[in-house]
Please model this.
Amino acid sequence: MKRRLAKFYMIGSLALALQLAAMWMRSGVRGDYITWERNYRMYAVRSDWGHLAFARVQLAVPGDGLQWQTSRGGYAGVIYGPETSRFYSDLIALRKGRFIPAGHSPGGIPLLTYYHISMSYTLPVGIFVVPPLVYFLCHIRRRYVLKRRSSLGLCKACGYDLRASNGRCPECGAEQLSLSGTPGRGSRCVTTEASATCGQTLLAPLPSPLPVYGEREKEQ
Ligand SMILES: [Zn+2]
Model:
């Protein structure tokens, strides 16, 4: 269950990282500016020049719903509140303040508020790429540990030396004889008397334990 959850989380994170990476590449050639305006409030997402920004801006006039503007290169023009088309060069920049809306003179209208956060794409892509990377490294490490335990005749579950044991692991109780599965993925060590005597542990996903003993007997 825990592994399943980790896998689910990893896949979601990887999908987001890929999606953001695609947006990052697009931001180099096209600027996108999506706004949603309602009840004198505007919410905006902007993507261009390798940056991503979110904003919430108070409006002097009621807005008219959802809009999407796109342009070659970066978006040119007034973005939100007092901001212009430029982005901050910081990795991440949080801004909030008050401004006079365009077309109004100071004192002619109460100041309006804005909040916005702009960030370089390296930040969200970097954040979402970490979980799949960690998962992948853990997976490789787990495979290495299982392979090593198998080759040394140790319990795959706890690493206890099973060369003198049969059936279950005396340390953790894990079943060491499996009739199904594949090596390294849920299958268990197959320990036979013969292998215990000669100090070797047989490892195999086998259809039935009988052929194993049969083969071993033939070898003897
Ligand atoms: Zn064990």
Q: What stands out?
A: The chain is about 35% helix and 25% strand. Strands lie at 30-38, 41-48, 51-58, 65-72, 92-99, 112-120, 189-190, 202-203. The helical segments are 2-27, 122-152, 193-198, 209-219.
